[in-house]
Amino acid sequence: MTVQLHNVSHEYNYGKVQALRGINLDIRAGQFVAIMGASGSGKSTLLHLIAGLTQPRDGDVIVLGHHLGKLSDNDLTLFRRRNIGLIFQAFNLLPTMTALENVMLPLIIDGKSKREIRARGEHLLRLVQLTDRMDHRPDELSGGQQQRVAIARALMNEAPVLLADEPTGNLDSKSGEDILYLLRELVERENRTMVMVTHDPRAAAYADRIITLSDGQISEELGIVAEVMVS
Amino acid sequence: MIFQWTGWRHLRHHWIRTVLSILGIVMGVTAFTFVPSISRTMRSSASITLDDIAGRADIEIRADQNGIDPALVESVRDVEGVELAVPLSNGIGRLAEDHDLLVFFGIDPAIDRQVRTYKLTEGDFIAGAGEVLLPRTLADDKDISVGDRLTLGGFTGSHEAVVSGILDDSAGVARLNGGYLIVMGLSDAYQLRGAESLDSIAIVTGGDTARVKDSLATVMPDEVEIGDPSGRNRAAEQLLDALDIQMSMINLLVLALGAMLIYNTMSVSVTQRRKEIGVLRSMGVSRRQIQRMFVMEAGALGAIGSALGIVLGIIVVYASRNLPVLPPSNTANLPQSTAQLDVAYGVLPIAFMAGTLTSVVAGYLPARYASRLEPVESMRLSQAERDFVSHSRQRIVIGLVIVLVSLVGVFSLPRTLEYFAINTNLIYLMLGAAIALFGPALIGLGRILPPVMNRLFGAPGLIAADNLTKRPRRVVVTGAMLMVGLWMALLATGSNFGYTAFMEEWQANENIWDLTVMGAGTSYFTPIVSIPPEVIEDANTRPEVAAAVMERYTTHTEGETTYYIRAIDFNAYLAKGARLIWNEGEEDYTALQNADKPSVVVTGMSVVIDGITTGATITVNTPSGEVDFVVVGTVYGALAPDQLTLVMDLGTYRQVWHDNRVDRLMIALEPEASTAEVRRDMQRDYAVYSVAIVDNADMQAAFIERFNSITSVSRLMTALLVVILIGGLTSTMFILVYDRRRDLGMLRALGMVRRQIVSSVILEALLLVGVAVLFAVPGGIFTVTYNSSFVHDMIGIKYAGVQANHVLMTLVVVLVVALVASFTPARTAGRMDVLQALRYE
Fold this sequence. Notes:
Number of helices of chain A: 8
Largest interface: A-B, 31 and 32 residues
CATH class of the domain at 59-227 in chain B: Mainly Beta
Number of domains of chain A: 1
CATH topology of the domain at 59-227 in chain B: Barwin-like endoglucanases
Order of helices and strands of chain A: EEEHEEHEHHHEHEHEEH
CATH class of chain A: Alpha Beta
Strand content of chain B: 15-25%
Helix content of chain A: 25-40%
Shape of chain A: globular
Number of helices of chain B: 27
Distance between the termini of chain B: 23 Å
Number of strands of chain A: 10
CATH architecture of chain A: 3-Layer(aba) Sandwich
Largest sheet of chain B: 10 strands, mixed
CATH superfamily of chain A: P-loop containing nucleotide triphosphate hydrolases
Structural class of chain A: alpha/beta
Shape of chain B: elongated
CATH architecture of the domain at 59-227 in chain B: Beta Barrel
Oligomer: heterodimer
Number of strands of chain B: 22
Helix content of chain B: 55-70%
CATH topology of chain A: Rossmann fold
Strand content of chain A: 25-35%
């Protein structure tokens, strides 16, 4: 299993808000999983736990065989650096860097020189169809283009696990569809494991598997995209 | 209303940034309150000294180096219009078996109280010889009571006296010299001084002062000065004026640093609230209302900061009340009163207005920018940065033009006192130009710095350099603030080191003597009586004495001009390795020793003011007739800073003046001789003569005392600047870290470890300091060299110039400041919760 959650619970505000209650979840390698649910259902928290951005109050989160709760902050950061690709709803690109520099950032952080990783950065930008925008800064790009840069950045470190938090939340429907198509294609072509949080059923339709959260618990799980579309 | 809805909420929401910005203004206004208090206290000290010494006199006859013959007092009293003529003879000495230097204040007890103020707290006023009065401070410190018998040690051995009363030293004569003074009758003072001579005669007239002055001139010798008592403070006032200019500039700069912080905060606030501005504009809020909203915010921050700054300023003044704030010059060789450091209350409303208005002005530019934003622009977050970059060419042109104009001005205007203020302001204008050039310099470094830093420090280096050079608008204000601070720190430390270096040089070259025998006088530098020939002969025949170099100290007056004269036996002087501290001209003593062609080296403020240079001729009406002295150079170490001192060979002096007197004997002992023993023997053997025997340490201590009042203020300013630098940089780094919280959260999410985040923030601070150093060091060195040398020349001491180790030390201090200031913000950045940081708006 690529991702395993055993009886995971999480809370905020010193227990006042119960975000997740006893979640058990296994995600296989190469699977595209969509996590749906209403606002406050705990879907983003689940994604953050898998990314190791926060630790559960109870239970175990195991990603690629690593018990995240047993790793030190440093090791957890290094694990994330090499194994997780993150895509945010707000893109979160560094405003001072060009599109290419933003894409190369994960490997620059890992100590690689720009020269040795430049070709891969350019390749990824070509992959997301931004060949002509490589030297543009984020504010010179549209929202869809910025999200493409963020996707290319998530692919840069060849992470086996991609996590996307509402990747189309800030985009118009056409740009959103393009992004989802791209993500779907990447999962299939490069055999990555993808966990995507969304509240949009049309976005979820691109996934192999849809998990719906309600009040911090898995309320529904569907394995066939067509069924969602029909419902 | 809009301000209440959005602005206040925003300030409260970002309370850390708000508090830090307010702190900037607090520091600025604190300095604004404190610095004028120092200046005012210096003037007060000069003024009360005048009151305490001259009392209610309206004319004062002041002695030259040789004193006034007491017999002349009667002639003065006979002048029509003179109601009172009150003599004064003072000297220095010690209590037996005590090392503190005291002032002996010799008066005529029968009449002195009609002019000067004495407040008896215990006992009686002195009735005649053998009785003394002590200020309360001295009595308490030395545990002396009324009726005690004291042994006083003056220039001529010891003298017994009984304490008749204790004086309140909160006012009047007892306040002089910090209360370390003994009031006695004239006959006692003469005995301790070793000479029957007066320092001044205070005169109270019936009214027509001018006419009385004219009449006095007819009965007094030419050498004495007849003038208003305020004439004493002339040189001190001139120097205070110069010092005031410097302090005002420092004051304004400190306030400017605070304003920069406000500007920084308001700029960040505008950047962050673009969307909010866009929404408000689209809802029909006018540009003027938006502008007013931000100006009011800045004004509110300024008003709060100013109020707190005033309170803190008052606290700092009260905490520093015991600082000896003396005027920078004591030309009259008389004791001085020290006014207690007190708040310059008149400046408080100005400080408040200045702090608030500065904040409003600092907030105006971001406010104007905010009001001009189109609603749609709110999505384009770095428009402001791009605007900034596109205006950099204009800044370069403006900056370079200002630098050029300032340099031309500085080098073409005369180096005289009248132009000092203009020259100083031109240098500060250059500082302004450097601020304008700082942003373009950062942009220029954008191509070089990031790859270099990436190679050296990896991702933290790249991110630090990127932030610095590609978001210059956000850091340019901070950088400029650092540059100004560093520039000023260099100026302050340069001045301090200048004085210290001069003292070291004086100690190494001039004060090399084991013992100095001198004629009695009011200080170690102003002998009044000459050394008897038998003392000179005896000193030369003592087996422990390796060399005894003779020097004549005197004055020569011609009309309005008084020359101080140092005539040294250069043959013996140079043979023992002593030398003058040369300024201009070739260090050639041969010319000085050529009696056929009288030559001098000159020193003193007049050298600068009158523009006397090497090669000039000074004609002096000597006993041998008019003699043209060729100036072969200028040296440092004036006897009286406001007068011209002629330094010549003793042979030349004797030939021209026909005067064989000697006032100082500089003695080098044989290596095996004990200085303490020889001194003790000489004191015993020469007790009957009016001479003092002091050792090297005594001379040095007396010399250091002359400079303490200057350096204490300048050291205080340095400390203030360091505090402001740390405070300013810390708050700015905090603001930058909090403002970039989302970016930092994203970097952590992408896999940047805490250590890398910490390194990145520290590297950014260091880089910013580095760029500031690039500007500040050349600018600071230029300012120190030019400005300080000017001031130092005026008071007749050598400025040592900027030395590499001083610059290095300042840089180390700045480096430590950068590390200290960035450490906490960096640690805060490293410890930031990733998810919270990512949610930050």
